[in-house]
Specification:
The structure holds 2 protein chains of 2 kinds. By secondary structure, chain A is mainly beta. Chain A is built from 1 helix and 7 strands. In chain A, the strands form 2 sheets. A 5-stranded antiparallel beta sheet of chain A has the order 4-3-2-1-5, with no helix packed on it. Chain A has a two-stranded antiparallel sheet with strand order 6-7. In chain A, a hairpin with a 6-residue loop joins strand 2 (37-51) and strand 3. The termini of chain A are far apart. By secondary structure, chain B is mostly beta strands. In chain B, the strands form 3 sheets. A 6-stranded antiparallel barrel of chain B has the order 1-2-11-10-7-12. A 4-stranded antiparallel beta sheet of chain B has the order 5-4-3-6. Chain B has a two-stranded antiparallel ribbon with strand order 8-9. The N and C termini of chain B lie close together (12 Å). In chain B, 23% of the residues are buried. Classes of the chains: A mainly beta, B mainly beta. The interface between A and B is medium-sized, with 18 and 17 residues.
C-alpha cells in the first residue's frame, strides 16, 4: 500500500475504540441528528462479525428487538459513532456468529469469557 | 473548444473519506505537480495556442542531447512526462513558469480527468460492448456469442462500425465532472471523488474548467 494513502487513512482512523471480538456484547453510541437537535442512540447487542481492513473495517451487531432479530453493520472509523462500550466478553469458537440467526432464547446464549477490568 | 489549463499527475490509489455527517465518499488520491511550463505555443507561430508542460523530474544523465537543449531553453531540469494543454490566451504564460495545485484548483471545484484506461486484452461482446448474451441454462445453446452480425443478400456485407469482439481498454479516457474533495499543496496531493481512468502510477491530465 502506498505510504501516501496510509497517511491519509491514518489521519482519519479512530484509535479510541476499545478492543472487542465477535461474541462480545457491546453498546454502540450513535450520534443522530433529528431536525436541528443531536442526540445519542444506543444500539446494544452481540458482535457477530468483524471485518478487517484499514478504513474499510466494519463490524456487525445483532440484537433482538421486540422479538425480531435486528442486525446493524457499522464502519469502524465512522466519526458519527460517539463510542463503543464493551458490556461483556463472550467465549465463542468461531469468528462469524451467523449461527445465532437461527437460534433464539436459551439456544442463543454465549458463554462469558472472563470479566472486564 | 480548447481546454483550459491543467496539471499532470500520477494516480496513487483509492481510499474513502468521511464527512462530518459520517457519510463515506470513495476517493482517488493523485500526486499532481509541480509542473513546469517548457514551451508556449501560439497561433501565429505554431498554428494553435497551447502550453507544453513537464512533470516528474528526470536525471540529467538519462536525457538525450536534443531534449537537454529543449529543457535548457525553459531554464528547467528534465522531466519524464511532457504533455500539452490547449489554452485560449498563451500570452499570460511564460516558459519556466511553475504550475502548482493551489494556483489552479480549490476544494469543491469540478474538473475533468484524462488517463489511459487499463488494457483488458481481447474481449467478447458482452464485456466489451455490454451485449446481453443468452441464457446459461434451461436448454439455451446461446451463451456469450455476438449473434447475427447483419442481413443477407442486401447489403451483402457487414456494416461499418459493427460492434464485435476485440481489444478492449488501453485507450485514452476522459472522466468529466469530477469533484475536488481535498487539496494538499504542500504534499502535491489532490483528492478527487470517485474513480479515475487507468492503473496506479498511471499518468493523468487534470483539466480545470
Amino acid at each position: 500500500m502506498s505510504t501516501i494513502i496510509d497517511r491519509i487513512e491514518q489521519e482519519q482512523m479512530r484509535q479510541d475504540h476499545p478492543i472487542f471480538r465477535p461474541g462480545d456484547n457491546v453498546k454502540v453510541h450513535i450520534r443522530i441528528i433529528e431536525g436541528s437537535k443531536e442526540r445519542i442512540q444506543i444500539f446494544q447487542g452481540v458482535v457477530i462479525r468483524r471485518k478487517k481492513g484499514t478504513m474499510n473495517a466494519s463490524y456487525t451487531v445483532r440484537k433482538i428487538s421486540h422479538g425480531v432479530g435486528v442486525e446493524k453493520t457499522f464502519a469502524l472509523h465512522n466519526p458519527r459513532i460517539e463510542k463503543i462500550e464493551v458490556v461483556s466478553l463472550g467465549h465463542v469458537r468461531r469468528s462469524r456468529l451467523f449461527y445465532l440467526r437461527g437460534r433464539r432464547g436459551k439456544a442463543a446464549r454465549i458463554r462469558e469469557r472472563g470479566y472486564i477490568q | 473548444m480548447p481546454k483550459t489549463i491543467g496539471i499532470l499527475g500520477k494516480k496513487v490509489g483509492m481510499t474513502r473519506v468521511y464527512s462530518e455527517m459520517g457519510e463515506s465518499t470513495p476517493v482517488t488520491v493523485i500526486e499532481a505537480g509541480p509542473c513546469k511550463i517548457l514551451q508556449v505555443k501560439s497561433e501565429t507561430k505554431d498554428g494553435y495556442n497551447a502550453i507544453q508542460v513537464g512533470f516528474s523530474q528526470k536525471k540529467s544523465s538519462r536525457i538525450n542531447k536534443p531534449m537537454t537543449g529543449h529543457f535548457q531553453k525553459a531554464g528547467s531540469e528534465g522531466f519524464y512526462h511532457i504533455r500539452e494543454f490547449r489554452v485560449l490566451d498563451p500570452d499570460v504564460f511564460q516558459a519556466g513558469q511553475d504550475i502548482t495545485l493551489d494556483t489552479i484548483f480549490k476544494i469543491g471545484d469540478i474538473v475533468d480527468v484524462q488517463g489511459l484506461s487499463k488494457g483488458r486484452g481481447f474481449q467478447g461482446v458482452m464485456k466489451r460492448h455490454g451485449f446481453k448474451g443468452g441464457g446459461d441454462s434451461h436448454g439455451s445453446n446461446f451463451h456469450r456469442a455476438p449473434g447475427s452480425i447483419g442481413c443477407s443478400a442486401w447489403p451483402s456485407r457487414v456494416v461499418k462500425g459493427k460492434k464485435m469482439p476485440g481489444r478492449m481498454g488501453n485507450t485514452t479516457v476522459i472522466k468529466k465532472s469530477v469533484k475536488v474533495i481535498d487539496i494538499r499543496p504542500e504534499e502535491n496531493i489532490i483528492i478527487l471523488k470517485g474513480p479515475v481512468p487507468g492503473s496506479k502510477n498511471g499518468l493523468l491530465k487534470i483539466y480545470s474548467r
